[in-house]
Specification:
Keywords: Membrane, Transmembrane, Transmembrane helix
Mean pLDDT: 91
Helix content: over 70%
Number of domains: 1
Largest sheet: none
InterPro entries: PAP2/HPO, PAP2/HPO_sf, UPP_Pase
Number of strands: 0
Order of helices and strands: HHHHHHHHH
Protein name: Undecaprenyl-diphosphatase
Amino acid sequence: MILDTDVKWFMFINERVSTYPLIDHLMIFFAEYVQYAFVLLLIMLWWRNKKNDRVIVFQALFAFSLSYSVNRLIELFIYRERPFITHDIVQLVEHTANSSFPSDHASSAISIAVTLILVTIRFRYLWCMIAILITFSRIWVGVHYPLDVIAGALNGILIALVTHFLLIKQKTIADFLRRPIFHS
């Protein structure tokens, strides 16, 4: 029942693809390229090295790595074919026919965006909006079902929260983050 609803929502979205070429191009841009904006932001924060910038970068990369690893574990137990494999759809970007569940792009973008929200970085809500658009774009371009990106986003949120409120405060990590390399 949940998967049927998921497919119906996917088909509802996919029926609109190619109707609005400007939106199609925008979604392709978000699905394929905007994720690198997070990489550039983290590099900029590391180089800028003001206040806690490097700690923020460490925390974001830690959350990203952990959420990506959790996705790999989930994929050991749950395999879901991508929409373009099981349905006749409009697909805007090429993708390998690996497991669709959960979405790595959603986990990655959301884990970094939630980390930025938690550490109160300037423009944090803009980064959150960018992450949401990356997540939705993966459905629009035909490589994920809505449940895939919802699961990926939930994983990203949970991992960012656990990283911020539990892991970063652990003595070993806290001591590591007090090293001179993390402070200006």
